[in-house]
Amino acid sequence: MASGERRSFWRKYGYREQIIAIEALAETGLREALEYLKSLSVASTSSDEFTETFNGQGIDPQYSMAGACERVTFLNAKGELRERLAYTVHLQSVSANGAFDLSPAEIEHERKAAISTEPYATLLGAIETLSQRLSD
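Given the sequence above, the corresponding structure tokens read:
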């Protein structure tokens, strides 16, 4: 399949069909399928901020506090799959008293929770299945 054909394939089909295709690629036993699935799993991480709004008292009834986070995107994925694979990891907790750094364990817990969702877990599972097939 030519590169241009592959791009149009992923745009043509919806999220559910993309998940089914990922699962099917895991069963092929083809090294090219493994390389393609691995390319979908390549993440790009960027630093960003998030904002929490709080109800105040007195003159300023509402105010906002900003906190730091990482945005993780998968640039090789297309369409809704790309949107659903993307996730955010908070690096700080925000309260009315300010922003506080999360511990490395809390950050890792949030990251693991994010990648346990269906699209990411399905993609990683497909890569693992195909890797095992090819190593046997």
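Residues 3-135 form one domain. Try to locate this feature in the token string yourself.
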